[in-house]
Structure formats: structure tokens, C-alpha cells
Design goal:
The chain is built from 7 helices and 12 strands. The chain folds into 2 domains: 71 residues, N-terminal domain of TfIIb; 182 residues, 3-Layer(aba) Sandwich (Rossmann fold), CATH 3.40.50.150. The strands form 2 sheets. A 7-stranded mixed beta sheet has the order 4-3-2-5-6-12-11, sandwiched between helices. A 5-stranded mixed beta sheet has the order 1-10-9-8-7, covered by helices on one side. With 268 residues, the protein is of the alpha/beta class.
């Protein structure tokens, strides 16, 4: 029995986001290497709970993380404070957290590295928001030496065929913060006409023997192909330098499952 259903971006969803990412995407070493290779501070757009920003700051970088979700940023702050307490490797590192919509961001600083990680571009809802977020990246890049990095999933037709409204159980995990068990399930429906999907995600949480508390969120995913991403980036004022298909920066192939695009500031 489900005790109640809640919607929104509250503390529960922020915590479940971190549970979801216990399966490490494997991209952190790439960002650490890119940050080390480019001078200047680092900006992460849609930084969430600090999965990337906190380790970059702990490695000694001056990092600004931007997100519109205050609960996510609260978790990022707690993770940074924990990192400072637990390691001596933060000498020179700093983390600045900014609550703001990334499509409307205007900071005073320019950055040596600007990051839009792990499919965030797809979750912005529509082409206008995607275009604007890329323009924000270009606007905040240092004119000499700055680089923008965008990581996007490239689903195959077989992947999208599964987006037919079926419900899938993704995982069941223990949440040590609340001593609850949490099950994640999802349902997505894809439209070939718009190359977009509506994704509904449910997190069911319960103590052993207790009622289930369900938290739900709904997202619009607007998919972008490799050539379209390049065109959007160039229109936004970015000059594409590298298109890779994995976090080891292998050259992009026709059957790639994702694209990691690296670009410098160019002419808009």
C-alpha cells in the first residue's frame, strides 16, 4: 500500500539522486584531467549535489557550481564540508555554490573550464533552452584557453523502442540517511515526431514492515544527435575542437552511444 504520493524537487529527490548515482558513470577522471589541463577557475552548470564539483574543488581547483535546486546545493555544501574535514588534498581549492537557472546565468567571472555533464542538456526540455544553455557556456568561457565540455547520450533506435510507456524497475537500494529501502521505477514514452520523450520516475521508500511513501517526478527529454549538437554549439558561439565517444576521449564513431564535445570560445 502506498501511504502518500509527493511531487517536486525536495530533499527526498535530492537524496534519491545520489542513490541513483551509486552506479558511477565513470566521467570524473575525465573532468579532473581537463581541469588540470586548462588554467583558471571551473564552472559547472547544473552541478546538482556536487558529484563533480566537490572532487574538482578537493583536487585544488577554484570551482563554481550552479543549480536551481536548493536541496541539491545543500547536499553539495555538506559534501564539500565533509571533504574538507576528511582530507588534506583541498589546499588551494574552493567551492562556490550559486542557486540560479542556468539558462539565465550571468556571472562576473570567466572560466578556464565550463562543464555541462551527464545528459543535462537533454533534460532542459526544448531546443530554446538547450541553445540558451550553450550560449551561457560560451559567454562564461575565458577568451584565451577556456574550454566548454558537454556530455550527451546518443540513444539508438533499439533504445528508444523501449520508451513505449512500459514500467521498469531500475533498482532497489538501502538509504543509510533514513534507514529506508528505496525502489526506483520509471516509465518513458518517446515521440519520433519531436525526437523527445516524457519520463516519469517513481521512488518508493519504506522502513521494514512499514507503509510505502512514493515520490514522483516528471521530465521532458529532448534528444540531440551528434551533428545537431555541433550546429547548436556553433550557433551559440562555441568552436568545436573535439568530439569523443567515451570518457577516455576515443574518436567519435558512427555507432557511438554518447558524445563528449569539447569546444573553445568562437565567433557567435
Amino acid at each position: 500500500m502506498i501511504d502518500r504520493v509527493t511531487e517536486g524537487r525536495g530533499a527526498d529527490l535530492a537524496r534519491y539522486y545520489d542513490l541513483d548515482l551509486l552506479d558511477d558513470p565513470g566521467d570524473l577522471d575525465m573532468y579532473l584531467a581537463l581541469a588540470a589541463a586548462h588554467d583558471g577557475p571551473v564552472l559547472e552548470l547544473a552541478a546538482g549535489s556536487g558529484r563533480i564539483s566537490v572532487p574538482l574543488a578537493a583536487a585544488g581547483h577554484d570551482v563554481t557550481g550552479v543549480d536551481r535546486d536548493p536541496d541539491m546545493l545543500g547536499r553539495a555544501l555538506a559534501a564539500w564540508q565533509h571533504a574538507q574535514d576528511e582530507t588534506d588534498a583541498v589546499a588551494g581549492g574552493a567551492l562556490h555554490l550559486v542557486e540560479h537557472d542556468i539558462t539565465e546565468l550571468r556571472l562576473e567571472r570567466r572560466f578556464g573550464l565550463v562543464i555541462l555533464a551527464l545528459n543535462t542538456l537533454l533534460m532542459l526540455g526544448d531546443r530554446a533552452a538547450q541553445q540558451q544553455s550553450l550560449a551561457i557556456m560560451a559567454r562564461h568561457l575565458a577568451p584565451a584557453g577556456g574550454r566548454a565540455v558537454i556530455d550527451v547520450w546518443l540513444p539508438s533506435p533499439d533504445d528508444l523502442a523501449l520508451y513505449d510507456g512500459r514500467s521498469v524497475i531500475d533498482w532497489v537500494r538501502h538509504d543509510p540517511a533514513t534507514d529506508e529501502w528505496v525502489a526506483k521505477s520509471s516509465s518513458a514514452r518517446y515521440s519520433s515526431a519531436t525526437h523527445a520523450a516524457t519520463l516519469t520516475t517513481f521512488f518508493d521508500a519504506w522502513h521494514d514492515g512499514g507503509p510505502v511513501r512514493r515520490t514522483m517526478r516528471s521530465d521532458e527529454i529532448s534528444f540531440v544527435g551528434a551533428s545537431e549538437l555541433r550546429a547548436l554549439a556553433e550557433k551559440a558561439g562555441l568552436a568545436v575542437e573535439t568530439e569523443a565517444q567515451d570518457y577516455e576521449m576515443s574518436a567519435l564513431s558512427s555507432d557511438a552511444e554518447r558524445i563528449i564535445l569539447v569546444a573553445r570560445a568562437g565567433a557567435a
